[in-house]
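Objective 1b. Sequence-to-structure analysis of Peroxisomal sarcosine oxidase.
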Amino acid sequence: MAAQNVSSCFDALVIGAGIQGSFTAYHLAKNNMRTLLLEQFLLPHSRGSSHGQTRIIRKTYDKNFYTQMMIECYQLWKQLETEANVTLYRQTGLIVMAVEGNLDFQARVRTLVQNQVPMESLTSEDFSKRFPAVNLPLGSSAIIDKTAGVLYADRALKTVQDLFQRFGGMIRDGEKVVDIQPGSLVSVTTTAGMYRAKNLVITAGPWANKLLNPMRLQLPLKTLRIAVPYWKEKVPGTYGISKSFPCFLVLNQARHHIYGLPSNEYPGLMKICYHHGTEAEPDERDVTSQTHFHDIKVLADFVSEYLPGLDPTPAIVESCMYTLTPDEDFILDRHPVHSNIIIGAGFSGHGFKLAPVVGKVLCELSMGKRTSYSLSPFKISRFQLKSVL
Ligand SMILES: Cc1cc2nc3c(=O)[nH]c(=O)nc-3n(C[C@H](O)[C@H](O)[C@H](O)COP(=O)(O)OP(=O)(O)OC[C@H]3O[C@@H](n4cnc5c(N)ncnc54)[C@H](O)[C@@H]3O)c2cc1C
Ligand SMILES: O=C(O)[C@@H]1CCCC=N1
């Protein structure tokens, strides 16, 4: 269908069909808003932050507001599974490990206790009995967040997009937004045509600042290319989901956290990542192959120390993007000048599990409703901006 024939004015237009934009569009369509979701690439694609087969879901957070949001996220993920009759979540539990006395660890335990999340503290004897294939260094603490698990990410993204369309929403992929003209009706020009909408939501992942620049807004975002390595089990199944091996998170063992998921998506291979990367433009993510070198070395040392049942050389390395804010909290707010332009950005490598609630509050902002959560941790005004009109 040519863009010119598409209904000329929408209630809402969402730019970016990653998990945040897709969930926003889903909630808007469920609220009977005539909604268009625009995506620069043909779907599905692997250039942004939402691709890949799995993500961790957990209530373990150091900040109470995320744990509170996660309580509703679990319900909304469940609802999505029911609406689409698919399985998106598998409970595995999450081991959290840190050096004794680590303040981040203590904050996470407090938040779990405060919110009555089922959890268990493990002594080192308990630990080695339960997880004989993991070396917990002397002087470490460990807990299990029992409700944590794996989200099937690619399947989840497609499910949200399918349901959005089932609720009457329209997706146009392979259309890059090249111009935005603010106003009471926002005009959006793509490589294929022009659309108008009463409200615009920008959820463009690592491309957010490129879209905001012409509107004189630059958020303090860093875009990082992230290595996604898979490590081979010496004995297949040692760390397997079918043997109930959990996800894990090691706090600041290196400079940044290290996390892993049980072997599942590629049989015999376990995904273990470093919660950091190298600064890169999203369109240049793959131009040099050398920059994963440091992160892989950190992970290889970790694997040798903690997970002796894995070969410490990755079998596969994929890539993904993070968009970091300085405090690693999200940006969920209105454009400071154009109040019918809503921004969801800076998901800082931990936004997938929270997307059902992120989408809900971006929808609420767009519809002028009172938001279900306080958005003060997510405001643009917490930063000193260089260039806002
Ligand atoms: C390796 C890795 C592991 C992670 N692990 C976890 C985890 O375990 N748990 C967790 O909760 N989170 C995790 N995350 C984070 C989570 O995946 C991200 O926070 C989330 O996917 C961000 O989604 P997004 O929609 O903001 O961005 P994206 O997925 O990048 O979506 C933005 C979309 O906007 C489109 N776009 C941009 N510009 C334009 C334009 N001009 N016109 C049209 N379309 C445009 C892009 O093409 C893209 O599709 C991980 C991330 C990575 C990279
Ligand atoms: O959000 C998650 O669970 C993962 C693991 C911890 C660091 C970031 N992403």
